[in-house]
Amino acid sequence: AQVRLATACFRLGRLDEALVHAQQALSGAHSAGDLQTEVGARLRLGTLHACLGQLKAAREQCEAALTLARQAADRLAEERILGNLAAVYAEQQHYRQALENGRRALQLARELGDRVGEAHALCNVSRICQLAGSYQDAAAFGQKAQAAAASIGDRSAQANATAALAAACMQLGRYSEARGHFLEAIARAKDIGDRSLEVTVESGLHEVTQRLRVPQGSAPIPGRSSPAG
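Above: the chain's sequence. Below: its structure in token form.
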């Protein structure tokens, strides 16, 4: 119950409150020897610490959760944790490790037939490529994520995929296209009640709107490229 409360608070952008619920869930699960709930609580704590900029704590929670998931042979949990760990590595600018974990999460999702997980993993890899400066790959993975999410009607994945594609298009200098994707992503974020994503996308929309107002004196640098898959 505490993990569900933490997730609900997270989606509403109430991060400090979510952190309290996740910590309570972890304490209760550890005391009761409830391995599955402990994995879920640590996974949520890792996400929250990352959102709060506490990257060392986020990585520690994700690594602990990954160890427990592997002990329990819970491959679905392992897939999700690898995705979170990839995101943390990316924020720490460890892009090689980020892509390794992100691609492993994507591989696991495909092996398990987890189409929702596959869509989210594609979003994650798109974002990592963007942070690494591989904007062409970021756009390619963003488009794949959009298609995967649309094929299963997953509204959360659709929102995140559209946001990822918008960010990549902006970095490639495709500002009008990016603006359209940002507007769609905001509408989708509002539709699913994901305030955290909504705030992030609104920031991107503001940035691309400013860029559209500035005369373009030079072509954008497309960034490094690595093989997309």
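The chain is about 80% helix and 0% strand.
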